[in-house]
Amino acid sequence: MPTAEEDRASRRMAWCVAHLLRHAPDHVVADLIGRLDAPTRKYLCRDEWLSASTVTLLLRHGSGEDRQYVARNPHVVGRPLPGLPGPARYAARPGPSPELLRAVGPGPFTTAELIALLRRHTRRPRIPLTLLRMPHDPLDPEVLLQEHARDPLPPTAVEALLLAGRLPREVCRALLDAGAQDTDGHRWYRPAVRAVRMGLLTCDELVADVAPARRTLLLAHLPESRGLRWSLPEWTGMRTAVARALRPLRDDPRLWDELLRHAPAFPGTLPVLVARIVRGTLPEPAGEPPVPGLVTAVRSLAPKAAEPVGGVERELALASLAVPMESVEEDIRWVRDCLARGLLTGEDVIRHKAPACWALDEDHWLGDVNHPDRHDWAAPVLAARAEADRLFALAVGSDPDAWWSVAVTLPDFAGTLPHLLLRVTEGGSVSGRS
User: Fold this and answer.
1) Nearest to residue 13, comparing CAs of 428, 408, 418, 417?
2) Residue 206 contacts by C-beta under 8 Å, 6 or more apart in sequence?
3) Is pLDDT above 90 for 184?
4) Res 186: pLDDT
5) Is-above-0.85 flag for pTM?
């Protein structure tokens, strides 16, 4: 039976690891989860700040006990867990209408007939979902993939197949290749959002599988709209994964210009495009019409020059980040006021706020903004996550041992995040209290 002090230590370690895993690549996430002891792992599964990709990897590779703890986590919204939205919710809808039965017949349908019907009925995923519930032969993955490669299925059909097709994960990943379809169709991004929210794919896997590359870039900067879209935590996770794929471009303006030139017409995935840009093996692009929103999406991901430092008020605001106030509420009010007045940015909070674990947790400087679909104050959250991604990439890269050193150091470290990463990478003392 653990003591109260050991229990508090496990809770704090799980809280810190949950925030670290938002910035780590998938193989590091799996490695760090495997290193946790049983009490810490239990609290990690119950943590309210679990990222979508961490939940997916826990469900995919974790034990039955892990899945039970995640299933009882009330903060894991939208995943395929008991009582939460998923295929069962759509299976409970009424059966086919008389009009649909007259139009398509009672079935059963072959795979080819079902695919033809899915192409014909493309208004929202409701009718494709109804078609998949009607009598039909078991879907033949080979026929499905051949038809999709010949002429990509519409987004509504792909979303319905992800939800109710009971397809292998490899087939689901292949369905995310949209071929030459444009990105101004009706809710083209819904299958990608659905794949992450259902726990089919992590954000890193989505970046590796979505084609063409322009779609991946646009997924990091979706337009404001109603209906299914990224929640703020999912949005930051997607931007982290896309930024990781773009890291080989470094801060070379020439390479970023090449990305903008070639992305509209490149048919492959984003990692392949980036690799070919770096190697310089791409032919001259054909004259393609501009893709709406692509320039904005790329510019939002590109490295930005540091803003000039100015004003005594800004210097005082930066200094105040290292001195916690008497209460968390007072600290939050002060930081929010500085952000609203333009004295501080999200990058400033990550670089200067102490302790480091508070800087990584927006609740300690911005309040409770991570409720799904709360997009107010999104700009400082996106900026803070991007700066944390950059610092982790520079300091620890994709080395699981280095990430683990950060994880075990973070709970008791009193300094800033750059100070912590410097201590860990140098291999010296990690006591931030000296």
Assistant:
1) 408
2) 176, 192, 195, 196, 216, 219, 238, 241
3) no
4) 66
5) yes
